[in-house]
Amino acid sequence: MRTSTRGSRRLMALAAVAALTTGLLAGCAEDSDDGSSNEGGGNGGGGKTTLTIGTFGTFGYKQAGLYDEYMKLNPDITIKENVTTKTDVYWPKVLTRLQAGAGTDDIQAIEVGNVTEAVQTQADKFVDLGKEVDKSQWLDWKNAQATTKDGKLIGLGTDIGPMAVCYRKDLFQKAGLETDRTKLAEQWKGDWGKYVDLGKEYMKKAPSGTKFVDSASSVYNAVLNGESERYYDKDGTVVWEKSAGVKKAWDTAMEVATSDMSAKLKQFEKPWDQGYANATFATVACPAWMIGYILEQSGDAGKGKWDVAAAPTAGNWGGSFIGVPTASKHQKEAIALAKWLTAPEQQAKVFAKQASFPSAPSAYPTLKPAAATTEYFSNAPITEIFSASAETIPTQYFGVKDQPIGTALTDIGILQVEQQGKSPEEGWDAATEEIKDVLGQ
User: Fold this and answer.
1) Do residues 348 and 278 touch, judged by C-beta distance below 8 A?
2) Is the Cβ–Cβ distance between 230 and 240 less than 8 Å?
3) Quick check: 38 and 82 in contact, CB under 8 A?
4) Which domains does the chain have, with CATH numbers?
5) How far does the signal peptide extend, from start to end residue (predicted)?
6) Is the Cβ–Cβ distance between 213 and 263 less than 8 Å?
7) By CB count within 10 A, which of 3, 141, 244, 296 is most buried?
8) Phi and psi, residue 305, nearest 5°
9) What Cα–Cα distance (Å) separates residue 133 from each residue in 42, 128, 194, 361?
10) Beta strands in 112-227 (DSSP E)
11) Measured in whole angstroms, how far is the alpha carbon of residue 390 from the centre of its chain?
C-alpha cells in the first residue's frame, strides 16, 4: 500500500543505519509529518499522555480530522503522528525497534506486504488485540492476514485496496480518446492488455510532454493484484518463479517498459509527485487509497480533470493494519485509540475524505465521499466503482518475504528494463539474483 520498496540488501542497510544513527530508543520517523521527534510515548505538558502513532504514506487520520476529534473527546490525550513516506525505510526501522523491545511508537502501522512477517516472526512483540475487540466487524480474510496460528490478532484492519483506473480526461480528450468512464471501462474490460493497447493509441496523438502511464511497475502491480497466484501458495511455499500470476504481470509490464508509453517514474519518489502536479502522465492504476494521494499531489490544478473508471479486472492493491507493540508505555490508552481509529464510523470518515476503502463491511452502506472529493474526480461514482471491485477480489496468499520479492521484481528487474534499457531477460535475471539473496538460496 501507499509506498514503494527496495531490495533486501538495501533493507538490511537501512535497518543498520536506523540502529546506528537514530538509536534504539529514538522513535522518530525521518519524514515526520510535522518535523517533530517521537520519544516513544510519554507525558506531555499539563499531565497529558502523549500517544505516538507511526505510519507510512497517507493514512488519512490527520486529514480526516480524527486526531483532533479524539483529543477533543479525550482531553487527557495528545496524539503525535510520525509519518515515513516509504515502507522500505519505515518497516526495517520498526523491526529493529521491535527486536530491541524499545523505541517503538505506541501504535505501529503494518502494511499488508509485511503483515505475514510480523505474524510469523514478531507476534510476541505485539499486544493481542483480538481480546479487546469484536472481530466480526472486519472482513474475515482481513482478520486472517493478521492472525497467528494460535489465534492471536496482532493488528486491526484499516483499509483495503480495491482497484480502479484514475485518468486525466483532459489529456484523453486532447489525444482523441474516449473520455466517458463507462465506455472506457468497457474498452479494457477483462484484460489489462487492452489497457496497454489503449496506451498505444494514446501515444499516437499524445499531448506534448505526456505519457500514457506513470510506470511499468504500476501496471505490474495492478495486474498481479488481480491474480490469485502470487509469490507463495496457500501452504506458504515460495512459487514466484512458476507463478502464472507473476508471469502475466511481468509480460504485461514488459510491454509497457519496452514501449514509449511510460513516464518511467518510480512511484512515491519526488519526480513521481511532480508528475502528478505537472500532468505528465494520463493514467495510473488506482487502488482506493490512491485517491487521497492524487488529491494531495495534483492539487488545485487537477480539480475536475481527473476521473475514475472500473479497472480491467478486480483486484486488491494494499491495505494496512495498526498494532500496539508490547513496548508501548501506554498500552491501555494505545489500545483504546487503535480501536477507535479502526471502528466502522471512523473508517467511513476517512473514506469520505480520501476514499480509503474500509475493511469493516458495516461501514459500506454509509459510505459517501466528501463533495469536494467527488467534484475533484469529475463526479465519478467512487463508492460504486470500488465496492464492485471489492466484491470480486480473488483470494490471495502472502508469505514472509512477499514484499522484498515484489520489490526485487519492480525496483530492480522492471526498472532496469524501463530506465536503463536492458532486455526483459536481463531484468528478470537481475531480479532473480536479488530474490535468491532475499530467500538465502
Assistant:
1) no
2) yes
3) yes
4) 8-161+318-368 (3.40.190.10), 162-317+378-439 (3.40.190.10)
5) 1-26
6) yes
7) 3
8) -100, -25
9) 25, 10, 44, 15
10) 156-162, 164-168, 211-213
11) 16
Pairing outcome for strands 316-323 and 281-285: unpaired
Amino acid at 10: R
In contact, 295 and 373? CB cutoff 8 Å = yes
Q: What angle do CA 101, 102, 107 make, to 5 degrees?
A: 95
Single-letter amino acid code for the residue at 215? S
- DSSP bridge pairs for 54: 82, 108
User: CA-to-CA distance for 188 and 353, rounded, in angstroms?
Assistant: 29
Give the other-Cβ count within 10 Å of 200's Cβ: 13
pLDDT tens-digit series, residues 282-325: 999 999 999 989 999 999 999 999 999 999 999 999 899 999 99
For helices 8-17 and 87-100, the axis angle rounded to 10 degrees is 60
Residue found by looking up cell 509529518 in the block: 33
| Strand (E) or helix (H) holding 321 | strand 316-323
Q: In this structure, what are the phi and psi dihedrals at residue 357, rounded to the nearest 5 degrees?
A: -80, 125
Q: How far apart are CA 12 and CA 302, in angstroms?
A: 39
Q: Cell numbers 498494532 correspond to what residue?
A: 323
d(CA 129, CA 336): 10
The answer to whether the Cα torsion of 24, 27, 33, 36 is positive or negative is negative
Outline where 50-191 has alpha helix (H). Answer: 66-73, 87-100, 112-121, 140-145, 169-174, 181-188
Tens of pLDDT, residue by residue over 136-186, are 999 998 999 999 999 999 999 999 999 999 999 999 999 999 999 999 999
* CA-to-CA separations, 184 to 81, 189, 206, 285, 311, in angstroms, rounded: 39, 8, 17, 14, 10
